[in-house]
Amino acid sequence: DAADHIFDRVGLGPGTELLDVACGSGYAAAVARRRGASTTGIDASTELVEIAKRRDPAGDYRAGDMFDLPYDKESFDVVTAFNGIWGGCEGAVAEAARVTRPGGWLGITFWGPGRALDLRDWFLALGSTTNDTKTGMIGLASIGSPGIAETLFTGQGFNVVERGASASVLEFADEEIAWQALRSPGLVKPALDSLGDDALRDLLLPAVEQFRAADGSYRIVNELTHVIGQKPG
Prior knowledge:
Blueprint: H1 2-10, E1 17-21, H2 27-34, E2 38-43, H3 46-55, E3 60-63, E4 76-82, H4 90-99, E5 100-111, H5 120-127, H6 131-141, H7 148-154, E6 159-172, H8 175-182, H9 189-195, H10 197-204, E7 218-230
Parallel strand pairs: 1-2, 1-4, 2-3, 4-5
Antiparallel strand pairs: 5-7, 6-7
Helix pairs in contact: 9-10
């Protein structure tokens, strides 16, 4: 799993103070909590933040903006963003750098060239909705090109220590939670504005129906590219 790989690589364990940016429903932060870390998460979706709070009651989760993090300078040992930071998100990396302690770590994942992508049909369906959505997806996906993410890191003073690929598992208890998670990325906004929530839901959810179990839950596996960097200190 991508979260476990990054947490292993940065030595996350008891006493580590983690910030998960674009934390969604709190899956990765909950993994960190089980390892003994102190967990903080921020996401643009109020609905997903509420789920994260239920999943990890001891954590500090709030709705907010990754381009304007509400935390003091050098507050965290590890900052992560699992599919939250994309091409054009230099400001988010700058904020991550600001709140990372000297000697601390930044780890991000994003859709790269991996062939194992359960969300492929979902992306194709989303890209067919509006020209703005398709254009935005192309720009955001630019981070998957070799050297782009590394430049984001080094531009904020991080030393890149690893680029690789690993599996990521998305688990949603039911259709409503799945939809709240899948509609939350910023790249979905143009389609939401154009089609409305109900119409877009009817268009996109069938693309992941094959990954729905008999009990209504979803398990979606994707191969992600990750980049890990350390802040000098």
